[in-house]
Amino acid sequence: MPKAPLPDHVAELFRRPNPAVVAVLMPSGAPMSVATWYLVEDDGTVLLNMDASRARLEWMRDKPEVALTALKEGEWYTHVSVRGRVVRWEDDVEKGLADIDRLSNHYGGRDYPVRDRARVSCWVEVTHWHGWGEAKAE
């Protein structure tokens, strides 16, 4: 896998509101994956946001290695996969759910409708990437 940063054409694709799946490690060491929203920040880190009751939060705190695959909308053959580590955590409730609202607006154009659940944000520093289709490494 090439190391970060992503080439410009891959970064542009990765910044879109693509369908995505994140994989984390369970306490047993086995992988677990789930569909997710993500947002690439200006500094290149990737914002993820989860309901505070999710078991994967503790798993990610214990084993902060994360993999994320984003599939080009309508063309799954073109995809970008990144690997990295969680480098920062924040309680989104303390910020008025600003992070989940940014994600919801990125994907759906409106603030997140569920306002009565605690949420937690984390940022992943991308260390390696792999692309296929239009995103294939040259």
Keywords:
138 residues, alpha+beta, 7-stranded antiparallel sheet, 7 strands, globular
Structural description of this entry:
The chain has about 140 residues and is of the alpha+beta class. It has three helices and seven strands, in the order H-E-E-E-E-H-E-E-H-E. It has a seven-stranded antiparallel beta sheet with strand order 2-1-5-6-7-4-3. The chain is globular. It starts with 7 loop residues before the first helix and ends in a 6-residue tail after the last strand. The mean pLDDT is about 95.
Concise description?
This protein has 138 residues and is of the alpha+beta class. The protein contains three helices and seven strands.
Total number of helices: 3
- Helix content range of the residues, please? 10-25%
- The fraction of residues in strands falls at 35-45%
Order of H and E elements = HEEEEHEEHE
- Catalogue the unreliable spans: none
Average the pLDDT over all residues and give the rounded result.
96
**Backbone structural class:** alpha+beta
Give the CA-CA distance, first to last residue: 12 Å
Q: Determine Rg (CA atoms, Å).
A: 15 Å
Tell me the total number of β-strands: 7
Taken from the alpha-carbon principal axes, the silhouette is globular
The spatial strand order of the largest sheet comes to 2-1-5-6-7-4-3
Q: Strand count, sense and closure of the main sheet?
A: 7 strands, antiparallel
